[in-house]
Design brief:
Elements (H helix, E strand, L loop, with lengths): L12 H15 L6 H16 L2 E2 L11 E6 L6 H5 L5 E2 L2 E7 L11 E4 L14 E5 L10 E6 L2 E7 H6 L3 E2 L1 H6 L2 E3 L1
Parallel strand pairs: 2-4, 2-5, 5-6, 6-7, 8-10
Antiparallel strand pairs: 1-9, 3-4, 7-8
């Protein structure tokens, strides 16, 4: 029997169901004002991170933090920065400015709202999340969209796989659209 060189965190099925419900609830929240929409998108990004698995060589279980990068000029930046220090599974969330991160390898996830700071190819080990309304041409694993009064998300599985990430089936079920 093969043993993993690190302890595997197994979440109880009730906790996973609650987390999936929280992601679905956030995806269905009405976006009434720009500030509310930014907070909803930030909350949705946080909940998305709970359902993604990174390669062990990119984000080892013993790593102290998960780095979420965002452009400092982004209108979503204040709402995302408010998530700093929250726990994503067993990692502390470290919100960094995209320009000061130095390289894509310093980002485990990146929230992009402009095609100008998007990479040509998805970096290995980085979950690219685009604000699809602000940057529709960005090739990202997850795209956030406003649909009427709700904030929803789409998942591009080909981009997820190219980045060597895995997304929980629970997250796939609550996505508006999943493409190969």
């Amino acid at each position: 029997m093969n043993r993993l060189p690190f302890p595997v965190l197994r979440l109880p099925s009730r906790l996973l169901a609650a987390l999936a419900g929280a992601a679905l609830w956030c995806a269905g929240m009405p976006a009434t004002a720009q500030g509310d929409e930014a907070e909803q998108k930030a909350t949705l990004v946080f909940n998305l991170l709970l359902f993604v698995d990174w390669p062990v060589d990119v984000l080892p279980p013993q790593a102290p933090a998960l780095a979420l990068c965002i452009d400092g000029a982004s209108p979503l930046q204040p709402a995302v920065k408010a998530l700093e220090g929250r726990i994503v599974r067993h990692w502390r969330l470290d919100v960094r400015e995209l320009s000061s991160a130095g390289s894509w390898s310093a980002c485990h996830a990146a929230l992009l709202d402009s095609p100008s700071n998007a990479p040509v190819r998805p970096p290995v080990g980085t979950l690219l999340i685009s604000d699809g309304d602000a940057a529709p041409s960005v090739r990202a694993a997850v795209a956030l969209h406003r649909s009427g009064s709700r904030v929803v998300f789409d998942i591009d599985l080909a981009t997820v796989r190219e980045s060597r990430l895995q997304v929980s089936s629970k997250l796939l079920r609550v996505a508006r659209r999943v493409t190969e």
